[in-house]
Sequence to fold (1090 residues):
Amino acid sequence: MSDTAGRQPGLSVLDRPNSYIGRAVPRPNIARLTQGRGRYASDISLPRMVHVAFVRSPYAHARIVRIDKTAASGLPGVVAIVTGAELAAVMTPWVGVLSHLKGLKSAPQHAIAVERACWQGEAVAAVVARSRAEAEDAAELVAVDYEELEPVVSVEAALAPGARAIHPELGDNIAFERVLDAGEVDRAFAEADSVVETTFAFGRHTGVTLEPRAIVADWNPGEARLTVYQGTQAPHMMQNIIARHLALEESQVRVICGDVGGSFGIKVHVYADEMATVALAKLLKRPVKYVPDRVESFVSDIHARDHCVKARAAVKRDGTITAFEIDDETGIGPYSMYPRTSGIEANQVVNLVGGPYRTPNYRARARVVFQNKNVMCQYRGVGHPVACSVTEGLVDMAARAIGMDPFEIRRRNVIPDDAHPSVSAAGLKFEALSHQAALAKLHAMMDYDARRREQAALREKGVYRGIGLATFIEVTNPSAAFYGVGGARISSQDGAALRLDATGALVCQISVTEQGQGTEAVIAQVVATAFGVPIERVRVITGDTDVTPYGGGTWASRGAGIGGEAALQAGKALRENVLKVAGTILQAQPAALDIRDGLVVDRDTGRERIGLEEIARIAYFRPDTLPSDFQPELMVVRHYVPRKYPFAFTNGVNACWLEVDVETGFVKLLKYWIVEDCGTIINPQLVDEQIRGGVVQGLGPALMEHCIYDERGQLLNGNMADYLVPMAAEMPDIEVGHVVSPTLESELGAKGAGEAGTAGAAAAVANAVNDALSPFGVAISAIPITPEIVLRALGRL
Amino acid sequence: MKAPDFDYVRVRSLDEALAALAAHGEGARILAGGQSLVPALNLRLLAPEILVDIGGIADLSGIALADGTIRIGAMTRHADLERSPEIARHVPLLARAVREIGHPAIRNRGTIGGSLAHADPASELPACVLALEARIVARGPSGERTIAASDFFRGLYETALGPDEILVRIEIPAAAAGERFAFHELARRHGDYAMAGIAALARDTGAATLRIAYFGIGSRPMLAAGAAAALRDHGASEAGAAAAVRALGADLEPQSDLQASAALRMHLAGVLLRRALKDLFPDAAGGREEEIA
Fold:
């Protein structure tokens, strides 16, 4: 590994002449999007289209006694009012479990609640009308008689002995439990020079996408086919699931995903209201549109985190951390989400705690419980921010306990860069990580020693600044080990179809998807490089199950690493095919030719031989001039899935520099540095943007974002005024550095970058706040860190 | 969400507006800049029968100085206050405060009359007009009347305006030589409603004329009369500042909400007072940084 290149120059496909790998080329879709010419699912309008609004339960837990549609039905524009029981005749319920999460259980969930609502905001009836406004007018008049049931709100209450089970048939409220015990944990604690221990609390938050979820479903009885326009990360997964629960063949369902205004993991799940929309289209035989408003989004988009982790670590005087032990409890709402389940986040926490370090002794327990709150599931960084905050919080506590600098204790404990391949205490396999190089780079970038001097000088003046560090590892490029082995029909492989068109340009249809992060740019760069054309000659098509090869889509930081490799192999294969045609036309050996910058040239001299348009012209319009036994193949398909490693782990380290106003409790972020290693960097600007955006989505919950529930399970701040999304004015300058350790599993060598920033940001903030407050001898281990929490810790309230 | 159906009329004169109010009574809502009203409609928190848009009444906006008084038309946008040289020179407190109102898009539409009539306790301008001893001029069926700012704010979103009245302008005494002000606001994010804020004004260099107004603390903007009295009695010394902070306990009625508890708000009110005193009386001990913690 090195800072500049992971491979010998001139030897790999990445270093071809006119390579776009490592160049910040603009995204091909940027002009269209900035001119307002995007086509989001929210923009779709079809003839005869109607709109649905949902009547949602005002109670966290209630029996639905009676639904009276009379008053609502009479309003102008109302097309249908449909209850859960009525919709159940069209759509079957689902259960969100995976067989490899042993013991994970959940109850059947319907598209619209039948008999019982289990969280405040669960849909209990659908109102379909000519306009959304008319549907909302009528929804207000649907009279629902509820019998309020006692809600189970806190995790503590859900786990209490004798707690009433939300789903009595499941016996208790524990959806999933995992226990891990590696090495000799008890001995390590017994022999420790110091043991540090605390409880970390993580508030529930959500991912506020710029464009809300959006879906238009169009059932065409004439061809018995359903077309679904949806803002989704996984079109093929949705195709499979919609077909299954409507009792259709997959071939009867087409999912089209146009532009998407941000996903962040929010749009990779199966939402009951979206499934209801699809079922309504089938029932009513006309297009139905559903775009939740923000108030609905807060009670129906998945929430994330909501963990409470009791944790401790054992440390020796020389800084060696000898053991970690955690006990994690998390609440997931009343159902495990389908089909990825709500057990994954806690499972990741168990996997990832202590991950950057050599520490061999590790014990963990995680319990995932049902409760009457909105559903919880995978959001950007799944489990990483929790594991990272716990680990890095303990490491800082250990450093303080033995009087060691926080940088130094990390240097001494990270897995050395030359120790790979390696296996963590939790059993994770690492192909190549670069903790030492990343720490060294960060130390220089932030001028660590100068910051410490500045901090000391300011403290004299009553200004309290802090430095917080956080190393992390990140799951990317998942193989079938993530979902497929658990029985979910979620593809871990992706495919790219590439063809030369009649003008010598390329069209790439690929199964990974674009959510605004630049997938299409990265794919175009890889194709242009591997094949040998200017990037303007590559058009990338994503997001249509009728058009692209079969694949997983974009989630778990897999678009560039997996989709990119499929595109690379397709580019190489098509180049070979085109050179065969060129060789035939030129009566030359294909091996003596190459394609560079859109021209077929002599490989050795670079002399121009023939243009691609001419090859296409001959192959498509004058094949009669070619030998009769030669068939040009100007379209190829290649697929890719990682096989050697279950995940391509990446790593990095964060540093946060902030100031705590000890009078007001306000925290001001001053500067942020992050060094990450995502392997081959295809587009440095897009990687930096991903990292920065990820950091901001980690900083939000560290300081502001919090879904606040009362004791009756009512979400109190479900709107954009009271739920504080981080805004530009409060965000620090974020400097991004890179170390490059390509994965050798793929020729491209790219790992994921999309979630790296989110993994460690909250940990860096909390550590910096505690560093700033260290003169007062207090520490905070709950996020979000609000002024109230800071002042209470300081004893000033 | 979509707003429920309502009627809409854009009036050309105050008389037309007053006639519309008289015709529809409580069912009418005046639309000024719409920055609070439109979100409330879209959230279906309000369902008026009719919106009376007063944006087309030409003589309702503008800033003018005459006889030592600044007159600001009710439809004057926040952005106009922000850019006005008259406001910067003669009402510098307002020029400072207006920068904290929402974001540029909100300031381009929002109006001073709308903000005062809406009387959101966390808004900047109501507290400013209290500190400035402004007079609020309303017009109703029987003509104009002038209401002292200190009599105008009655409670949460509640003012002295009758349902048949329209706020037409604000009159503020122009700044005298030696006048000083302080303005501080604590919000989690720039542009948010304040978690706590202070607007303080001293008409001369001493503490005798000091007026201290708070916003974001209770159900309405509040004058801290007890704190001001303590500072009059003791001066801006450390003893005066300490007495003033103590007096806030009786002056203010802090409320708890999702952003802050009442205890936090009371604490922040004290911190803000110290900071304001430091701005107003930089040489006095009461604002000294080390005394604050």
Observations:
- Chain B touches chain A through 28 residues (CB under 8 Å).
- The CA atoms of residues 26 and 163 of chain B lie 6 Å apart.
